[in-house]
């Protein structure tokens, strides 16, 4: 054996002997320790554990309070406070999925759910009735314009975004002023009782049907699931569609009576007057039970097409924003600004596309009754709503009554005393 190997061997022996001696000393100290010192050490260890447990419980309670106090208005502030609390307490922060779900109140998912599964559109708050009562003259004027009531002469001018010369129908407020002067102020509120009943019936029925569907299939609606899981999105949209269809169908008789009550203003008739029950009986005598639901198919087609197409478009836009690269700094700003603009613009564009179905539903509600506006030469008698749709397409009047202002008229007209008047046929 070389001298170097001998020195290394002796060093190892010395180190092992030192370790053995230190352990022996520790065991000797532990054996010589009396019972009192042992109890004190055990109690101190238990106290430290108890304090640690209390601190952990307090921190968890504080975290739960922060999460429970989150509201629609201060969600973003709460997220910041939550992260600051986690940093101060040296706890691990939330992962990206939890943070994005907590921070999605002002994001596009919430805007999507206002169309897919939002119960606020079925609200029956008193303010809704006050708003409906105040704006009823506009709704009543829209029904008259949909039926072809144009008492004022056409105006000639240039279109808003072009230099072409067009003929324009008077705006709603000019027609309301004409009705006030010729038929009295209360003519603007004829049928307001039926309008309120229709509103209550449609909203309450839709809300209760949606509530029953939620009980049959429990589970909270989740914005992220609607974006990530297409099957879940379709399930929520189907619930909304069923509730909407049932509400519109049940409230359709009141809508039919409303249209007929308003339509009698055109030729100053008094057939649909008196109580609601009397008007129901008059409509039943003229068109039977089937007449209460005349035009319901056209209205449901318009509602469902608008609901499904708008929900799918908004879902696609939201997914497109989320799939953008996180490296871009303007993604978060775009995510907050663009959804509000999209949800404001898209429904208005789509409502214009499906407006002909609602126009046909209004005409069919009156058609077949004994009112002059529902018979030739004002309108032909339609057996089905498809015939009415084809007739309105033939005379190019699908935009009738859609706008309050800038109402370009492209239909037939006649000249009386040097002025042009629109013809409804």
TrEMBL record:
Domain of life: Eukaryota
Residue stretches of each Solcar repeat: 231-320
UniProtKB keywords: Membrane, Mitochondrion, Mitochondrion outer membrane, Repeat, Transmembrane, Transmembrane helix, Transport
Residue ranges the record marks as coiled coil: none
UniProt membrane topology term: Multi-pass membrane protein
GO cellular component terms, semicolon-separated: mitochondrial outer membrane
Location of the protein in the cell: Mitochondrion outer membrane
Pfam families on file: Mito_carr
Family from the record: Belongs to the mitochondrial carrier (TC 2.A.29) family.
Protein name in UniProt: Mitochondrial carrier-like protein 2
Source organism per UniProt: Trichinella pseudospiralis (Parasitic roundworm)
Phylogenetic placement of the source organism: Eukaryota, Metazoa, Ecdysozoa, Nematoda, Enoplea
